[in-house]
Amino acid sequence: MMIPEKYEIFYPGVYTPEEQAAIDRLLSGDMGGPPGGPGGPGGPPMMKEQVYQKEKLSEVIMRMHAESIIPDNPLYNDPEYAKTTWYGGLPIIPGYIEALAMAMLPRELGDMCMPDRQLVGDAYDHEVEYFAPILAGDHVTSRPGKVELIDVTPKEGSIVRCFVLIAQADIVNQRGETVGRSTTRFPNFRCRLKPGMEPDRFIHPFNRYLHPAHTYTQADYDHLAFLWRGEKIRGSEVLYWDDVSVGDYTWTTAEPPFTQMDMIRMYGQELVGCESVKNQVLSGHIRGEKNEYGVYENIISHYKPGRSPFYNYTGRDFCVRNVTNWAGDQGFITRVNWRMVNDYEPELQANPFPEGFYRESYLLKVPELREKGAFINTHGMAPDCAITRGYVYDKYEKDGAYYVEIALWCEDLDGNYHTECGITLRLPKK
Questions:
Q1: How far apart are CA 316 and CA 295, in angstroms?
Q2: pLDDT tens, 118-175?
Q3: Which of 24, 169, 173, 206 is the most buried (most CB within 10 A)?
Q4: Domain residue ranges in the chain
Q5: What topology is assigned to 214-430 in CATH?
Q6: What is the value of pTM for the model shown?
Q7: CA distances from 313 to 19, 35, 267, 418 (A)
Q8: Can you say how many angstroms the Cα of residue 171 is from the centroid of all Cα atoms in its chain?
């Protein structure tokens, strides 16, 4: 709990010269500065261009990824089969390639803190769009785009400075075509102690996501087996836009209870570019947070008794598998938007987003979930399972193409929701 008397008061748009200079660097794409660490003084400049692979997208690596995420769909696992489809080659699984749309709030703007109220809607919001298929053999490059910083600190002043940070980046192929775009939207909360004041105990936000581990019974495994035996893959059977109605549900999919080793198996090949502890210490950018005893703790240590969380995009991948099963080979996912942090009761949620930046929770687009007042109340953790469902909440024609909008969510056997996702699917018309 923050004691207001110990902290400075912030006002929206009011910055010191040092703060303004840091903001200018951020918006110019340069997150560097004097020595000190990334995102503040001393961080390396933001990369102007990042090549995902020096060689062509490897068919072998893509199939390894597919075997972990969507193992039963031949469209992503069988190159010869894929050549017979609309794609004409082995496509990436949506989410496998996304541009590096990331920025860090400069340290000059204050110290990280957790307010008593949490942003709703676009909090920790990640989106990737695809304008054309990306296939095995393509060269793809990530090119950072615009960075936008929106100050939503209350006008009357607050000890918590609040920003919405929006970053974009494009995916460009070997022909110079922009084939995808990534956007991240996430809140940043900052505070600053008055001179001579001792900091309050930092309560890591992941503490809010803790829920008791489920004890699985034979009945639980029988239920999951029932769901698995009922799973279908549409494949070459065409799903036409004409045959989809608002109110339709996708086919339910289920994922088994996951351990941390399962996470490594699924994503081990992709976990690259993470800063080592050595370099974190040497750069002054230590990712852990100090507890009340001055000891650094990592994320996993905040889970008692040591349950590690799903990776941020694990639930997204479950939702993508759900839609690819249902859509068939002629379906093309053009947008995936996922959110995994919005765990506050409705009365503790805040919405300071300016008009045009707020988007309603996907859960509230589903009548049965809206009636229940459902919200993301946890972060998936080992050994949670994920039962994934989808609901068609809109369909339309745009520029001669035909789309359906699907709201998806992941829940466990205890009724906890740990991911919500919106997917835009392009379908053929009869």
A1: 33
A2: 554 445 678 999 999 999 999 888 888 888 888 988 889 988 888 888 888 899 999 9
A3: 169
A4: 1-57+92-203, 214-430
A5: Thiol Ester Dehydrase; Chain A (3.10.129)
A6: 0.85
A7: 32, 32, 10, 11
A8: 17
